[in-house]
């Protein structure tokens, strides 16, 4: 499947959600945390949070190596929305996405956005452990911790609110300067900020555990994962960002253990989807060379059984395929596809294998059959569009992608392939327009507008296409102005 990557840039805006004190004092275990509530409407409305979240997301797409892998996106979105369906006080839509970074970290920000580092898949030993991190971040959003923190600071200084919001937007445009501005803004009451952050973290743990239980996950996964992280990095000179922005004193770990113990034990079946997603991350997004990745799967495979063995063989197939060893990859992949012909992880990789070996009709026929039972699935639709393009059937790909981008306007994969499809049919105006949408998703308003202006100049004067392009230019100019007003 098509994979898009971007140049990594260090952008630690998770500091906005929680401070990173150099010294954390011990605190007494809390038997019961007070209900802090979800106030903060006087600070930022939900509508304004959505604006900030959209702006920040566009800048993240431009500056962070977001993993635009349809399979992994589908997996984290499905897992995240399973948790959201059982969360309290949900007031915004949620979007979950992966950033290619081996460091253990996750962060949430305005507008229901939750970012997960791919390194979580290297450290989480079960789907419940990964879900525990996600549930914690979901609670940060539902409880509006960032807005409440701003409100708390604003009570101490009338100028603080404007400074905090200004720092947030500066951080979007210039991360290092923004972080410095945030630190300067909040430096007046360091101890108060630390205490407020502790209450946020423990509230997010408490609500996150409740969400885990309602969603059918193992609630013991949260203290287990947190405890293992704390032990692993107890004496590290440079702990991961997650421990800097989400401190783990013994009292917090003990509190999560106590709270998890209040729920009945439940057996959670091993998640095949999690194991396959983890294998895909190891094979393609862990910055391992092919030999090291194969060694990892070999070690994992010695004790693997059932679904774990299946995931190991899937990972080996990916590494071998990416190394150009197609026959060896096929030997691992085809038995998996035969056992589970509807599994999208296997369908996606079988498509790649066919396309690499120019077996275009074989790939297209298989995907068309799969789409009959799941016609709206994004992974299958993108795979079929990609297969059409590789087969030289750009017109059929164009039809499919036009509908896909309408249904999924924020999917960069769809716009990238649509640009390729327009190019394949000789439609330069359509190619320019599709690339403009990619630029807009990254907040590059000037280039997006210029692309649409060029597209408008190419087509027939007074045509429907020109009217459509001109209307989109007006929309983008308005979006640019609103972004500047922030």
Automatic annotation (TrEMBL):
Its EC number is 3.4.-.-. The active site is at residues 137, 205. One of its GO terms (cellular component) is periplasmic space. Residues 1-26 form the signal peptide. InterPro entries: Mito/Outer_Membr_Metalloprot, Peptidase_M48, Protease_BepA, TPR-like_helical_dom_sf. Zn(2+) binds at residues 136, 140, 201. One of its GO terms (molecular function) is zinc ion binding. Its cofactor is Zn(2+). It is found in: Periplasm. GO terms for biological process: proteolysis involved in protein catabolic process. Keywords: Hydrolase, Metal-binding, Metalloprotease, Periplasm, Protease, Signal, Zinc. It comes from the Bacteria. Binds 1 zinc ion per subunit. Residues 71-259 form the Peptidase M48 domain. Functions as both a chaperone and a metalloprotease. Maintains the integrity of the outer membrane by promoting either the assembly or the elimination of outer membrane proteins, depending on their folding state. Belongs to the peptidase M48 family. BepA subfamily. This is Putative beta-barrel assembly-enhancing protease. It comes from Photobacterium galatheae.
């Amino acid at each position: 499947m098509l994979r898009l990557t971007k140049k990594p840039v260090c952008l630690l805006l998770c500091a906005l959600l929680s401070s990173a004190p150099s010294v954390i004092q011990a605190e007494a275990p809390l038997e019961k945390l007070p209900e802090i509530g979800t106030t903060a409407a006087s600070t930022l409305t939900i509508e304004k949070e959505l604006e900030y979240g959209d702006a920040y997301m566009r800048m993240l797409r431009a500056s962070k190596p977001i993993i635009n892998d349809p399979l992994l996106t589908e997996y984290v979105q499905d897992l995240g929305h399973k948790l959201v369906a059982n969360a309290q006080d949900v007031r915004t839509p949620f979007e979950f996405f992966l950033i290619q970074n081996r460091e253990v970290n996750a962060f949430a920000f305005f507008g229901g956005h939750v970012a997960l580092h791919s390194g979580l898949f290297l450290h989480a030993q079960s789907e419940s452990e990964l879900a525990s991190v996600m549930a914690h971040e979901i609670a940060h959003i539902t409880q509006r911790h960032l807005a409440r923190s701003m409100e708390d600071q604003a009570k101490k200084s009338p100028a603080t609110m404007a400074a905090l919001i200004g720092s947030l937007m500066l951080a979007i445009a210039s991360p290092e300067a923004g972080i410095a501005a945030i630190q300067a803004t909040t430096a007046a009451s360091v101890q108060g900020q630390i205490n407020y952050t502790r209450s946020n973290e423990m509230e997010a743990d408490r609500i996150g555990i409740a969400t885990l239980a309602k969603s059918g996950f193992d609630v013991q996964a949260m203290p287990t994962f947190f405890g293992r992280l704390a032990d692993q990095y107890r004496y590290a000179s440079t702990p991961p960002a997650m421990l800097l922005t989400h401190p783990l004193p013994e009292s917090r770990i003990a509190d999560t253990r106590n709270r998890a113990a209040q729920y009945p034990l439940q057996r959670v079946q091993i998640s095949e989807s999690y194991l396959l997603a983890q294998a895909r991350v190891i094979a393609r997004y862990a910055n391992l060379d092919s030999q090291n990745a194969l060694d990892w799967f070999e070690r994992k495979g010695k004790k693997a059984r059932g679904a774990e063995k299946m995931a190991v063989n899937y990972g080996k197939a990916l590494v071998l395929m990416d190394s150009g060893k197609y026959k060896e990859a096929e030997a691992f992949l085809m038995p998996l596809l035969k056992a589970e012909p509807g599994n999208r992880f296997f369908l996606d990789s079988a498509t790649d294998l066919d396309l690499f070996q120019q077996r275009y009709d074989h790939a297209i026929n298989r995907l068309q059959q799969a789409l009959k039972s799941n016609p709206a699935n994004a992974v299958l639709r993108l795979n079929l569009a990609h297969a059409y393009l590789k087969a030289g059937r750009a017109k059929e790909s164009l039809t499919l992608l036009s509908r896909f981008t309408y249904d999924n306007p924020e999917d960069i994969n769809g716009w990238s392939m649509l640009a390729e499809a327009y190019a394949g049919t000789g439609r330069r105006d359509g190619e320019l327009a599709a690339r403009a949408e990619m630029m807009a998703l990254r907040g590059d308003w000037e280039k997006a507008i210029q692309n649409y202006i060029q597209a408008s100049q190419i087509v027939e004067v007074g045509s429907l296409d020109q009217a459509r392009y001109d209307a989109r230019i007006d929309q983008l100019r308005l979006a640019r102005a609103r972004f500047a007003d922030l």
